[in-house]
Predict the 3D structure of the following.
Amino acid sequence: MIKEPKKNARSTKTLLRLRVNGETREVATEINKTLLEVLREDLNLTGTKHGCELGECGTCAVLVAGKPVLSCLMLGIEAEHAEILTIEGIMRDGKPHPLQNAFADLGAAQCGYCIPGIVLTAKALLDENPTPTPEEIRQSLSGNLCRCTGYTKIIEAVELAAKKMAANVGVPS
Amino acid sequence: MQKKNFSVIGKPLRKIDAMAKCAGETLYADDLNLPRMIYAKLLRSPHPHARILSINTARALKLHGVLAVITGEEMPEKFGIMPSTQDEEALAIDKARYAGDPVAAVAAASETLADKALSYIDVEYEMLKPILTIEDALASAEGSERIHTWNRQANIQKAVSFEFGDVEAAFAQADHIFEDTYFYQGNTHLPMEQYCAVGSYGSDNKLTVWSSTQTPHYLHRALAKVLKISASRIRVIATPVGGGFGGKSDPFSHEICAAKLSMITRRPVKITLTREECFYVHRGRHPVKMLARTGVKNDGTIQAMQYKTFLDGGGYSSYGLASVYYTGALQTVTYKVPAYKFEGVRVFTNKPACGPKRGHGTPQPRFAMEIQLDEIAEKLGLDPIEMRLKQLVEPNSITVNGLRVSSTGLRECIERVAERAGWREKFRKLPFGRGVGFAASSYISGAGLPIYWNNMPHSGVQIKLDRSGGVAVFCGSIDIGQGSDSILAYAVAEEFGIDPADIRVLTADTDLTPVDLGSYSSRVTVMTGNAAVLACGKLKPLLLEAASEALEIPVDDLEFAESKIRSASLHQRAISFAEAVIKAEGKHGTLGATGSYWPPKNPRDFKGSGVGPTPAYSFSTSIVELHCDSATGEITIDKVWIAHDCGRAFNPLLVEGQTEGSVYMALGEALMEEQIFRKNGLHKIPSILEYKSPTTLETPEIETILVETDDPEGPYGAKEAGQGPLLPVVPAVANALYDAIGVRIHEIPITPDKILRALDGRLKPISIPDFKFPAPIKWHPGEGIEVTQKS
């Protein structure tokens, strides 16, 4: 049985200091909360979605220190001191990232629910390998499930974004 | 096809919500956070079949932070999507009918606490022997334990039987009769978004429910019925759906419980299901055993067809009444079938309820039919494509079961897919281990009849023009990713000659938008598109009249183009669209109009005739090329070609997207996906990790060929795109496997173990249960034309 909290009981929360989308955010939260929960529930960054909360679908992927991470498998406290990038932080000066433009132009987002995780995972790929082959794109996105698109337009959109970025068209600073 | 000069239709435009989705701005149900919001969880039965003897909620209610605990006694009214088979309770009262059936619900200050409180609810069950197979259900006797008591025959939900034309005589004229058995395993939708609903009962005694639902209108009706509140005091807002595929088309327990808990606590209540729970909610593809019998002439001409289908329905009716009819409805819509018999039965079993998944009831018999035709061609020494081409259903014809086919691009779909895939060079010519397979299919563009009998429109659109030149479009339809919001914008932009990006589309809010029946049965483009065009048609004369006066040009020389109303002969004489709206508002007052769409009347009049008719049929063909390692049984799909007759492509990007998504989902069903259960009735693999679905690595290159026809019933000639292209791919995989390694597999998923057993001659044929179907309803073409609805 859960008991009434005692008077003057200590707070169950811990103060986390996170770097999210280039901003420093402080949040008092439960120490066992996942990064996904901290982002969505404490920071109201609901652009990060979830499909299983067990690390099986890739929907909740965010970038931590530039690498794709399943935010449902990482504790918020583990992400302290690292740069966290969510879908909300991918625009620069109000301009969409070339990946976002390419996904929108090619109809690569149907229901759109898996798209934040996929765009971020693709960004990590392009940051490391600006001219990936379709096979390399498939490999890098193989942990992100999408039930709508059959992946065809997603892969085409990543290719298109890579081309545009190589040609320096609409690249955010 | 007649090309028309469109400014918007047919262009590969962005969806109006595309960037919001790519920016993470779209708010799905679980993204809603309301002030004072609390969280709910459902307690689910761990037993597949059990009497509920008692539920004691006292211990849970004492927990600090628990605000309400409810059981089914508080909402005993039954509900269900089909009016005649309403057998669901918001929370099970007397009996749990599958492992996962909800029996109680908790609302608490946090999700963690609500979850914890579930273990403080004491339920006393009397365990019953679960019924887990079609055979077990059919073997039920008069005195057997029944999963439901409302149905006439123990554990049989519905048995149907039809005969169209003189079937016996037609079989007698056949040179050959082929009879085979098949099994299509069940599988689930697996949308990436977990189910979620938020209920909020306000101090004005009005209820608002936000839900990830494909059918806000039917949810609205179910909430009113179960909660016993006037529908006029309930507002349902369908949030953008993060994938549906049919799985979010029923009204659900969690939606009703979120509402009820908010009524009790007077706080907004959110309930988000875990991924595991999504496997229990299910409503996915029915497992179906089938017998297919086809009589043909020596040249392969079909004389008669007979189908028996046995559907494993799970614990509740859901859409099952329609599902069983759909397993027999569309076999006649691809090739000419002079005589046709169909018998189908859906049984209850102690598993999560099956329902509509992409293609609803039609992929299963299509799987059987297209494999059997492939085998017939093989036995008669004919090319399977040539054999089919000789007997295609003609445009503007009526099938033996009375279905009216308007346009068909099937011939072109077959010819183009064969040409692109290099069929002639590959079929029966590739080395051992590699093969190609072909199949064709048809599907409805919207059910011709509503789910509950009424004479109101299936879709309503309301348009408001205001003096800023702004256009707002209101419609009850819900965008589940297929782009239905954009379809409304495209239609209105086309009519008014404006940019779709300048239109505000407001959908799926029962307080604000006229009813649209929902995103199911591939109905939305045809029905909302037609309604939108009709609404625009009422406003255009008012705008033209005002423009005519302002420009001093007769109305018949005016046109809507480039955000202007202009002289068709002298384009520079024009006023802006916004100016025309201002002038028209000054002249006529506030500008608004509605458009309503009713499908054509049902051309048939027998019981069960409501399933099958549609404004227009789409057609699809597919060729699959694969290779199979005969040592391991592993299949690799090399490429899929898919041709789809979508009528006119409203936006080719969206049609391609629907087509590619259908191919992908078909490959998942054909090769790996299955909703399966242990012998004790528990779900075997209720997680994304274990429920295998194709990733980027298993999904091959897909080449989409859009075959455009100009259908007289569709808006601008459009037909459906979202479901039909799934159908041919599954049998095409089976046919390609035969071409590759010479074994026939009559069941899905086609897994390596089955392939190895088939190669060893150890794969058993599918057994068909013994069952006495009711005497058939006999019907002949021409009988009872233009009636409205029966059952």
